[in-house]
Structures are given as structure tokens and as C-alpha cells.
Amino acid sequence: MLSDWSPCYSAVLRDISKLNSMEATAWTEIMSALDAQSVETCVAAAERLHAEADADDVPKLLALLETGDFFAREAAAWPLAELAGPTVLAELLKAYQRGFDEGHDNDGFTAALLEIPALFPDQVRASLASYIATAVEPARGHALWLLEFCQGEAKQ
Fold first, then answer.
1. Cis status of the peptide bond prior to 121, with omega within 30 of 0
2. What is the Cα–Cα distance from 54 to 29, expressed in whole angstroms?
3. Domain edges within the chain
4. How wide is the angle at C-alpha 116 spanned by C-alphas 111 and 122, nearest 5°?
5. Over the stretch 24-74, which tens digit does the pLDDT of each residue have?
């Protein structure tokens, strides 16, 4: 699944040893599994990425958003939403639109985005307001849609 994003993938793999984050072997295993032919293997890899990624992995997760592989972008969206939330909204919304541009329904990505206002309601309101002020369509529309979900209390 990741075969069409080799330049970014190679850069991510090359720089693994420089980052204090998920162990290089674990990251490599997950990346290989995301590229598997088996849907079950890919789904398990996405779940593992979600479970094992931490704040130090945010740069690598952001690099996955830039790939040509929709599944890898969606897999990165979940941990990014929970770990960095409002601070990576612009990157997430760009990758979200790319999925639509490629003809995907983005259902998993949508669910990941909806975690952000649930986890960070106050911060995401401010981030979205700032983003909306300068964004152009269709990204602005996505931000306005997400803003509708910023009414609740933060999850504990």
C-alpha cells in the first residue's frame, strides 16, 4: 500500500535513528505491515501504530500525512489527533482533503478528526478560528464543519 510514496518513506526510515521515539525496529515493522497485501495485516499495523506512537513520534507521523498512500495517512491521523490535536490541524485537514481528491470516503479519517474537539475543546476552538480566518475552500469548509463539534467538555 505504501509503494507509491517511496521518497518520503525512505526519508522517514533514514531518520528513525535520529529521533527519540518509537524504537526503530517497531517503526520499521509497522511501516512494512502497512505496505502488506493483506488487509488484515494493514489494519493490525494501523492499530499498532495508534497504540504505540507517542509525542516523540509526531514528526514521523506528520511525514506519513505527506505520502501518496491513503491508508498510511489515515493510520497516522489517529495518533496525531490524540497526541498533537490542535497543533497539527492544518496538516490533518490538508491530508483529509487529499483523501477526498483521490476519491476516498475518508470515514476513518473523519472519525479521527472528531476526536480532536472531544479531547481538546478549548484549544481546538482557538486553532480552528485562526485557521478559518486565513484558509481557503475546501479546507475552510472542513474547519467550519469541525468547529461544530467544539461544544462539549474535554474527555477525562
1. no
2. 16
3. 3-147
4. 150
5. 899 999 999 998 899 999 999 999 999 999 999 999 999 999 988 999 999
